[in-house]
Design goal:
Blueprint (H helix, E strand, L loop, with lengths): L14 E5 L4 H12 L3 E6 L2 H13 L4 E5 L5 H15 L4 E4 L14 H28 L3 E6 L12 H21 L4 E8 L5 H10 L2 H11 L8 H12 L10 E4 L8
Parallel strand pairs: 1-2, 1-4, 2-3, 4-5, 5-6, 6-7
Bound molecules: nicotinamide-adenine-dinucleotide (NAD).
Length: 262
């Protein structure tokens, strides 16, 4: 686990579910949440990688459960929320983060791929919220953070279902925020730009290697490089913690000024 010089117990006594926790932004956030005192339920398709993340957290004295399953299915949402309540007795934070990004022109884009992207990226959040909100209402409320993308509002050819799913996440986020604000549940979206994760390694492979991707990143993201997963995780930590108690229904750009550029 990476050293956290500012470890302050910002999530002490909180219970959090993190989806897509086996790699990338989900893994980076799970590690930071654990360092800040949260007890965790990690959800992903990949059991071996989930176990590795869980082992890393437990080695540092953290508490961690894993649920292996497809976030697009109600059964996975039920199992994840039940695990949090059975093991830790409550649920305070839900980080809906799992996502996929198959690219292709709309004319060649298979209908099944469209359905799968909408199911994994958007419907999963509806399902997780349906199961998580009743448990949050039994406690002191909660914080839900949904991973959207800069590509919800700025896109380029080929992001057929991905951009649609990420735009839908922002609508869902606002609806939950206004419906449950009075009851102490907050719901915010994050919109990362380019981030160093396997998702972009796969994209680079499809373009012919990282050398092909770097000039695009430099041109699109004024920061001039990809964000690290740790840099994204710190923004999620703020939204998860009580420090952001009045931040609700927002969509936080974490994109090195990509969405500010012409
Ligand atoms: N990497 C970026 O530049 C970037 C930018 C903006 C938004 N995002 C979003 O961030 C989120 C995390 O992506 P990442 O970059 O860390 O990618 P990643 O591929 O490293 O991680 C995604 C994780 O989600 C899991 N997952 C995929 N489908 C699943 C399913 N059906 N059920 C359960 N788990 C599933 C994968 O196994 C993987 O562990 C995604 O929603 C992605 O769209 C990424």
């Amino acid at each position: 686990m990476s050293t956290n010089p500012t470890k302050q117990g910002r999530l002490n006594s909180k219970v959090a579910i993190v989806t897509g926790a086996a790699s990338g932004i989900g893994k980076g956030t799970a590690l930071l949440f654990a360092e800040e005192g949260a007890k965790l339920v990690l959800v992903d398709l990949h059991e071996d990688k989930l176990n590795e993340v869980a082992a890393e957290i437990r080695e540092e004295g953290g508490s961690c459960e894993i649920v292996c399953g497809n976030v697009g299915l109600m059964a996975t949402a039920e199992r994840a929320v039940a695990r949090a309540v059975d093991v830790y007795g409550r649920l305070d934070i839900l980080f809906n983060n799992a996502g996929i990004m198959p690219v292709g022109d709309i004319l060649d884009y298979p209908e099944e791929t469209w359905d799968e992207v909408l199911q994994v990226n958007l419907k999963s959040m509806f399902l997780m919220c349906k199961k998580a909100i009743p448990e949050m209402l039994k406690g002191n409320g909660g914080s839900i953070i949904n991973t959207s993308s800069v590509m919800a509002s700025l896109t380029e050819p080929g992001y057929t279902a991905y951009s649609a799913s990420k735009a839908g996440i922002i609508g869902l986020t606002k609806e939950i925020a206004v419906s449950y604000a009075e009851k102490g549940i907050r719901c915010n979206a994050i919109s990362p730009g380019w981030v160093e994760t396997d998702m972009n390694v796969r994209l680079a492979d499809s373009l012919g290697g990282m050398d092909k991707l770097y000039p695009i990143i430099k041109q699109q993201q004024p920061l001039g490089r990809m964000a690290t997963t740790r840099e994204i995780a710190y923004a999620v930590l703020f939204l998860a913690s009580d420090e952001s108690v009045v931040v609700n229904g927002s969509n936080l750009s974490i994109d090195g000024a990509a969405s500010a550029a012409i």
